[in-house]
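Illustration 12: FAD-binding PCMH-type domain-containing protein.
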Amino acid sequence: SIVKKKYPVLCQAAHSIGSVQIRNMATIGGNLCNAAPSADMAPALIALEAECKVQGAKGKRTISLEDFFAGPGETVLKKGEILTEIIVPKLAGKCFGVYIKHGLRKAMDIAIAGVCVLVTKERGKLKDVKITLGAVAPTPIRAKNAERILLDGDLSEDSVTEAAEEAAKACFPISDVRSSEWYRREIVKVLVRRGLRECLEKV
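Figure caption equivalent — predicted structure in token form:
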């Protein structure tokens, strides 16, 4: 399909949702409007700089997906507004992205942590890096300081490790029945390192 060819990281994220039966019935819009901090589609779409078009009685407006979430189970949708469209910009340069979900099971599970890494190169040089995190804060978030470490420095193993450490600092996780706050921070470091290594190797 077009999505699989142009935005494979979206397919990765979608494949991690629920079960085959749920994926055949559910919608991306539903996954986003549910506004669970662990929503699998959110980190990938935020990394891709997606926007949401919403419609209400007073007209239409466009919202950056990064600004769409207001808190656990809450969005910025006003009373009477619905999400009608998700816009994903065309990727510029040579890109590779991964979405890695860590949970207790391989299916029908809510993420303990979810990490999306998207790396863009142009003319052989690093142009952009996006690191987005799910299930480790009240809303899905970008680890902007971690991104900056890679954009401002070299792409050594040391900088990858430093970026992973910085990503963990961006988290505001909770302890619940699935995981402790400490474990979520630690697993973010592991997943960010893994995602960065894979992206930098394949882009």
